Amino acid sequence: MDILTSSISLGFLWSIMAIGVYLTFRILDIADMTAEGSFPLGAAITAHALTQGVGPIVATLLGMAGGAAAGFVSGFLTTKLHIPDLLTGILTMTGLYSVNLFIMGRANVPLVGTVKTVFNMINIGSSTTTTIIIGAIIIAIVIGLLVFFFNTEMGLAARAVGNNEDMSAANGIKADSMKIIVYMISNGLIALSGSLMAQTNGYADISMGIGTIVIALAAIIIAEILLRHLSFGQRLLTIIGGAIIYRLIIALVLDWGVDPNALRLFYALMLTVFLALPLVQKKIAQSQQRRKNTREFLKNSKEEK
Predict the structure, then answer these.
(1) Residue 124: pLDDT above 70?
(2) Residues whose CB falls within 8 Å of the CB of residue 121, separated by 6 or more in sequence, listed in order
(3) 249: which residues sit within 8 A by CB, 6+ positions away?
(4) Which residues contact residue 253 at a Cβ distance below 8 angstroms, ignoring those fewer than 6 apart?
């Protein structure tokens, strides 16, 4: 039971990051590596603000704003300087490593003790219960705002750019501006997740962004495998389930005694399986269809004779 509740609590916080990655991955068709820098950036800004006496809500919003700024940089590089998407993410991620060190002043900033966070502002119950409740509230706000925005004229324009950039430009949509907006929203959410993770873990660390993109993509792929052909809002909800399932798998693997040093390798292998699964399913369906067609052909041939 502890494993389940822990997986739900962390899955909620991870799902915010996964939703952020989903925006660039599915709307713009880009696996944005900026995520691995903006995640610890949100944690670094929030940790620094909290240790300076800033309120937890303001500190969290500052972390989110920092991620949006990182997204703006990546969006600017790829749209205005025409640097390839993958290289853009790598450049921003690399630069953010030093930025995060400058912000924190060291590789690790503890938040335990007298520092107040969003998770100890009020006493709801156990730390896990508090994380679940506050995480659920934040997710509800995030999804509500995203569904509202992406159904406005600007949001629909951004989705149109992702579907067909040339056609969107022909209809007067400023494709570059829409891309930058999606980059900013995406990395703002990723940084928000990093900020919340730092507060619930009790520290911000320079290396906490490693593997972020793998975790997020795994949650997205799990959600898409479980349920297909959903609306935008419904897909965002399923990503929460994907993040919880992914976290539960990791918790069970650790509980079975797998070496924690092999965890990153396990992340990569699991994501490979999830990414290959749709292709395997397609191949199986094609094979079944061929066998069905062969049986029908043989049946028709016998009837003709």
Answers:
(1) yes
(2) 56
(3) 270
(4) 263, 266
Long-range CB pairs of 130-139, under 8 A, 24+ apart, other chains included: 131/9, 131/10, 131/12, 131/13, 131/200, 132/5, 132/8, 132/9, 132/12, 135/9, 135/12, 135/13, 135/196, 136/12, 138/12, 138/16, 138/192, 138/196, 139/12, 139/15, 139/16, 139/240
With beta carbons less than 8 A apart as the criterion, state whether 237 and 144 touch.
no
Residue 203, strand partner residues:
110
What's the one-letter identity of residue 239? I
Which tens digits make up the pLDDT trace of 155-210? Answer: 999 999 988 888 888 888 899 999 999 999 999 999 999 999 999 998 999 999 88
* d(C-alpha 44, C-alpha 188), whole Å: 14
pTM above 0.85, yes or no: yes
Q: Is 230 helix (H, G, I), strand (E, B) or coil?
A: coil
Residue reference for tokens 């900033």: 109
pLDDT band for 305, please (50, 70, 90 cuts): low
What are the counts of helices (DSSP H) followed by strands (DSSP E) for the chain? 11, 2
